[in-house]
Amino acid sequence: MISALGSDETGDGRVAAHSRGGPTALRILLGAQLRRLRTANGITREQAGEAIRASHAKISRLELGRVGFKSRDVADLLTMYGVGETDERATFLALAEQANAPGWWHKYSDLLPTWFELYVGLEEAASVIRTYEIQFVPGLTQTEDYARSVIILGHADASAEEIDRRISLRMARQRRVTSPDGPRFWALVDEAALRRPLGGPKVMRAQVERLLELTASPNITLQIVPFGHGGHAAAGGPFTILRFDEREIPDVVYMEQLTSALYLDKREETDPYMKVMDRLCVEASTVAESRRFLETFLKEM
């Protein structure tokens, strides 16, 4: 049985829904269930595409949760897959409606490229977020002033209003992480990010103080990767791993580029990054050592 961002096996083939989380994860869950139904009935993507007057490529995108669902398309696919007028069918259609509902970040959609809007949706649904950063302090730990300095670097021609809205979006993402029911957030920060004086000494001092505050949060783990440790496993650059409670949603590795992003979700692709992240956690300073590092660093500023 699949629920909206929560799945349980009952053995009776029924589907029930209750809301928890955002539309991105709902699309992935619904797409996974439709894929199971299609393969269980021995139907190809081409045949399914014909049923909804579309290509096999669209079926692939629907099953991966990369696009929204039209209720008519879902209804036609369910009929083809042998799901008649039952509670299960009604719940599938209800999930399709929920999956098409705009997320809280919709009001920022004019600022968000499609490739990053997908990430915000996945971040919203994740139960564990693990990130490694080299150049900047992680976005989910930034103060408003530090975030302003980072955002201006990437959007030098933006108006003051746009910069303020981008900061507002980042702070809204942060609030979920620091809330009592937020995800487990595990950040590894290279010492280079702390040594880069973005915004000037006053901004950097407040940022380090913010990091120290966050070390007291029960759902946040912060480790520093100091220069003194020499080379380390993540020589390739920064990346983030998103993990979800629902087994229908695979782990996702996210790597941001200048004008796009790379998403990896196949096991053979994500496993190497999992191993690198695990090695980094061992190679980095411990949580206690990292706190002492930040305290010493703050005194030296």
Quick rundown:
By secondary structure, this protein is of the alpha/beta class. Helices cover 50% and strands 12% of the residues.
Detail the poorly predicted runs: 1-20
Radius of gyration: 22 Å
Counting helices, strands and paired strands, the structural category is: alpha/beta
The spatial strand order of the largest sheet comes to: 5-4-3-6-7-8
Count of extended strands: 8
Number of domain units: 2
CATH uppermost class of the largest domain: Alpha Beta
Share of helix, binned? 40-55%
> What is the third-level CATH name, the topology of the largest domain?
Endonuclease, Chain A
Number of helical stretches of at least 4 residues: 12
Percentage beta strand: 5-15%
The CATH architecture of the largest domain is: 2-Layer Sandwich
Explained architecture:
It is a single chain. With 301 residues, the chain is of the alpha/beta class. The protein has two domains: 2-101, 434 Repressor (Amino-terminal Domain) (Orthogonal Bundle), CATH 1.10.260; 105-300, Endonuclease, Chain A (2-Layer Sandwich), CATH 3.30.870. It is built from twelve helices and eight strands. It has helices spanning 23-40, 45-51, 56-63, 71-80, 87-100, 114-125, 144-154, 160-178, 191-195, 201-214, 267-283, 287-300, and strands spanning 2-3, 6-7, 128-133, 184-190, 220-225, 239-243, 252-256, 261-264. A six-stranded mixed beta sheet has the order 5-4-3-6-7-8, with helices on both faces. Strands 1-2 form a two-stranded antiparallel sheet. β6 (239-243) and β7 form a beta hairpin. α7 (144-154) packs across α8 (160-178) and α10 (201-214) runs antiparallel to α12. The longest helix has 19 residues, at 160-178. It starts with a strand and ends with a helix. Mean pLDDT is 87; it is low at 1-20.
